[in-house]
Amino acid sequence: MTYHGPGQLIAYLLIDIKRRGMGVRHLVSQIEQSIIDTLAEYDLQACARKEAPGVYINEAKIAALGLRIKKGCSFHGLSLNLNMDLSPFKQINPCGYKNLEVVQLCDYIEKVNPQLVQQQLTFHLARNLGYSVPGNSAPEKTLVWKEGL
């Protein structure tokens, strides 16, 4: 079980992984690496765990992944905690892990700019997944954000 609420950056990645020649584990690893790269822009050392998908700072989870693969296509995506009320996580076992500490970006930096984090994450997702960022001259594919999703 997980929780989504105001103050999280949510990204749904709808990718035809079969057509792109990408396996599920590779997709998960690239999403995790994109979050790690984004957090590195704030001088934060984050890591992924093979046995527990998501991104962690020390032992605390800052980002969750929830993917569904159907007919070779990915659905759902990631949530990155930016500046939110974390108390709902105390009511559940986040991602099925009892007593898992959950943190957010504002625990580590003074002021979180959600639009900037979104741009940084978009850049890293596009680069790590082999897409171009809107406005770039690279012609291959384009990754876009839909407002309100």
Number of domains: 1
Strand order of the largest sheet: 1-5-4-3-2
By CATH reckoning, the class would read Alpha Beta
Q: Please work out how many helical segments DSSP would assign.
A: 2
The oligomerization state is single chain
Any low-confidence stretches, pLDDT <50, length ≥5? 137-149
Return Rg in Å. 15 Å
CATH architecture: 2-Layer Sandwich
> What is the number of strand segments?
5
Tell the overall outline: globular
Give the helix level as a range of percent.
Answer: 10-25%
Structural class: alpha+beta
Main beta sheet strand tally, sense and closure: 5 strands, antiparallel
> CATH topology, what is it called?
BirA Bifunctional Protein, domain 2
Quote the beta fraction. 15-25%
CATH homologous superfamily caption: Bira Bifunctional Protein, Domain 2
Termini separation comes to: 20 Å
Q: What letter string, H or E per element, gives the SSE order?
A: EHEEEEH
Mean pLDDT: 85
Overview in brief:
The chain is of the alpha+beta class and 149 residues long. It contains two helices and five strands, in the order βαββββα.
How would you characterize this protein structure?
The protein has 149 residues and is α+β, with helices and mostly antiparallel strands. The protein is built from two helices and five strands, in the order βαββββα. A five-stranded antiparallel β-sheet has the order 1-5-4-3-2, covered by helices on one side. The longest helix is centred in the first third of the chain and has 17 residues, at 24-40. The protein is globular. The two termini are 20 Å apart. Residues 137-149 have low confidence and may be disordered.
